[in-house]
Specification:
The chain is about 30% helix and about 30% strand. The chain is of the alpha/beta class. It has one domain (about 1-195): 3-Layer(aba) Sandwich (Rossmann fold), CATH 3.40.50.300. Strands 1, 2, 3, 4, 5, 6, 7 and 8 form an eight-stranded mixed beta sheet that branches. Strand 7 (about 130-135), helix 4 and strand 8 (about 160-165) form a beta-alpha-beta unit. The chain is globular. The structure holds guanosine-5'-triphosphate and magnesium ion (MG). Guanosine-5'-triphosphate binds near residues 166 and 167.
Length: about 200
């Protein structure tokens, strides 16, 4: 987070993370589409539309006192480009973990979650994070409860989960609002936002 008192601007960085092909790019694009900014997502992808490095875009809000600028990134799920993932994750304020709900890729989600936890070590406990169980439109899905139990959900703080269908934008805005809410609650708790008022 960057706070500039002079220009009254708060900048946040939120990142979509998750296993290969879980729907990270589809989710970020659906969100920008909602705000009428479909063309404002920069995607660095291959000829077959796999993310090579990241997707990136900004969304701005303002009230009479403050400007809020949210930088949104998605990581690549391709392990060949794994080196780019910790770079993209630097200095983030919140994570939206996009899980692929198809039963046959269940373990890819676990591996990806564990990778995420390893990048942040103990800091992952408090980092605001939202798990989106994507692809709810498909048959043969695993139960979110099983995944949450497997990752030991209750040991984490500042965490929530939702179901999404990124392909039809279902739940995407909800996830965005929820991660912002988790981020701001976290900032209030650490008294950073309160000090600005
Ligand atoms: N049925 C269904 N397909 C989806 C959904 N979300 C994404 N997809 C499809 O899943 C495939 C991968 O989506 P992407 O958004 O490119 O996934 P990604 O996580 O960005 O993939 P990488 O960046 O390559 O790791 C595409 O064919 C999408 O159309 C969904 O909610 N339902
Ligand atoms: Mg992608």
């Amino acid at each position: 987070m960057i706070i500039d008192q002079l220009t009254r601007t708060i900048q946040l960085k939120i990142c979509y993370f998750g296993p290969a092909l879980s729907g990270k790019t589809t989710s970020i694009k659906a969100l920008f589409n909602h705000f009428g900014k479909k063309d404002r997502v920069l995607s660095i992808d291959s000829s077959i539309r796999r993310t090579l490095f990241f997707d990136y875009g900004t969304i701005n809000f303002e009230n009479q006192q403050w400007h809020l600028k949210i930088h949104l990134y998605s990581t690549t799920g391709q392990d060949f480009y794994i080196i780019t993932r910790p770079v993209t994750l630097q200095a983030i304020d919140g994570i939206i973990f996009i899980a692929d709900s198809q039963q046959d890729v269940y373990y890819r989600n676990l591996t990806s979650w564990n990778e995420l936890c390893n990048y942040f070590e103990d800091a992952i406990i408090n980092l605001p994070k939202l798990i989106a169980f994507n692809k709810q439109d498909l048959p043969d899905k695993f139960s979110p409860a099983v995944f949450l139990e497997n990752i030991n959900y209750f040991k984490f703080k500042n965490i929530d989960f939702k179901k999404t269908i990124a392909l039809s934008s279902e739940g995407i805005l909800d996830c965005f609002e929820e991660i912002l809410s988790l981020v701001f609650k976290h900032l209030y708790k650490s008294q950073i936002v309160a000090a600005l008022q």
